[in-house]
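Hi U.,

Before I forget, here's the chain from the pilot set. I'm dumping it here mostly so it's searchable later in email.
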Amino acid sequence: MQDGTFASPGHPGDTARGDAYAADCPTRRLLDRVGDKWSVLILLLLGDSPRRFSELKRRIAGVSQKLLSQTLRSLERDGLVTREVEASVPIKVVYRVTPLGRELLGALRQMIDWAETRMGAVAAAQARYDARGEAAAEMVALPG
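Structure:
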């Protein structure tokens, strides 16, 4: 077994479980992918229904064509998304979430729900923190 891994009961087909705290654990790369905002948004949209590249690009404000392409390729490589080419004129490419990707969607939806509903509390905490920093800076700046 690789350093940072141990037997994993409970997930059929998985023989080892990673240790995200270990520097060389592949889990970290997977966490980078599933924690990336573009990956999260793409997976959530594909969880609702299969979509074409142009639909994803239109729906996800701020993502560049290059970044969307790279992220889709990475998600496909990780087994979270499939790319299906339909023979038509013009050729139609459709992206779908895989069963493995669907397993991840529950957690992602909870995370998005939490972020959307708790942003007010986070903004209030940020304002309190920033006010403390400003007060400390003013005290340092006062002639003593």
